Amino acid sequence: MGRRLEADVVLVATGRTPRTAGLGLEQLGVDCDAAGHIIVDTTMRSSDPTLFAAGDVTPHQKFTHLAGVHASTAASNAVLGLRRRVSATAPRITYTSPEVAAVGLTAATGTGMTTSTVSLEHTDRALAEDFTEGFARLVIGRRGRILGGTIVGPRAGESLGELTLAVAQKLTTRQLAAVTHAYPTFNDALWNAAITHASGGLDSPAVRTATSALAALVRRRRRGPESQPSSR
């Protein structure tokens, strides 16, 4: 859990500024934003078709894992003439205690969106290790598609890969719920969030109407032909 320190002042130095001034980018016709970032498309190509850029020098989020993937894409496209594109899905982790991991949307901000949240207080692994501070939350769109989510808890980043895959591949809560997960794990919270939403769809008005109609049909068949109205 760490230890508590007392201080008079806390200095937080965050953010990065690209050092692109003086490189002659303007003479090459390379577009940059007001902060000096080189503007690139999804293939990591700049406005100069012969110049590619990746990492913190671009406006993309400043993560080591993202810079590595973007650099690989830029190099492949520049050297091999490919047209590989980078994904807009960017997982992120804040290494606090507990960890905070997220990808995609973290709140239901649009029409038809909802959330499904499971607390670590209802997760057996967390109870066994006596660490119940945290939760797993899914942001869900129409037809149950997973649009993003947040995981808070011990080693939350270790569970983020599955959520990132679900967002990138446009999976639904029903698809995620159908995959058997190992037990007991902290990742049970994420799985149960998917199960909770997927099972909730079974109590929708449309499902109730269909179930009632099916039950009526079964009762009619059980009564036999004599129960059917005769035509003359």
TrEMBL record:
Protein name per UniProt: Pyridine nucleotide-disulfide oxidoreductase
Annotated ranges, domain Pyridine nucleotide-disulphide oxidoreductase dimerisation: 91-193
Keyword Lyase applies: no
High-level lineage: Bacteria, Bacillati, Actinomycetota, Actinomycetes, Micrococcales
Gene3D superfamilies with a match to the protein in the record: 3.30.390.30, FAD/NAD(P)-binding domain
Domain FAD/NAD(P)-binding, first and last residues per copy: 2-65
Organism in which the protein naturally occurs: Nesterenkonia sandarakina
Cofactor(s) it depends on: FAD
Signal peptide: none
Superkingdom of this protein's organism: Bacteria
Keywords: FAD, Flavoprotein
Molecular function GO labels: flavin adenine dinucleotide binding; NAD(P)H dehydrogenase (quinone) activity
Keyword field contains Cell cycle: no
SUPFAM superfamilies documented for this protein: FAD/NAD(P)-binding domain, FAD/NAD-linked reductases, dimerisation (C-terminal) domain
Pfam families assigned: Pyr_redox_2, Pyr_redox_dim
